[in-house]
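Subgroup meeting minutes
Present: P.N., E.W., G.H.
Scribe: E.W.

1. P.N. recapped why we're keeping a running log of single-chain structure predictions: easier to compare across weeks, and new members can see raw inputs and outputs side by side.
2. G.H. added today's entry (141 aa).
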Amino acid sequence: MVAPRMSRRGRRHFKQVQRAAEKFKLQEIASSIQTDLDKRHLSYDEALMLGNLIQNRADQLPGDGIVYAISDRDAYRKTLELYLRDALLTRTEQLLLWEERRRLGISDGEHDRLLNQLLLQWKRQGRNVTIDRFEKPSGGV
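Output recorded in log:
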């Protein structure tokens, strides 16, 4: 469903996302959205909504590549990469990530998929990451 206040460019991007059959095409659309945002042809909220749509569409397509788009998931990915930079993911960092997931609405499944994609990229580069054992908090922490 298209948001009622979506601009003409936003509607065009929306249709492109729905028709995209590969992650590479989604990445091209995400780059075009970024350009339109930079030129102020789209609002940030519209770009964020389209980026979240791109991430959802990317989940439906085969492959383990990461699509970079303005989205809640991309904001989370950046935080995750920051914590992985020292090749150690501590329990404290995992707790902070868990809180960030709750704030952004990132599911545990999305987190696991993204973490595995990042670890696969690092492994291809010959880098290893140590992850401390972590049990998800129960209830409202």
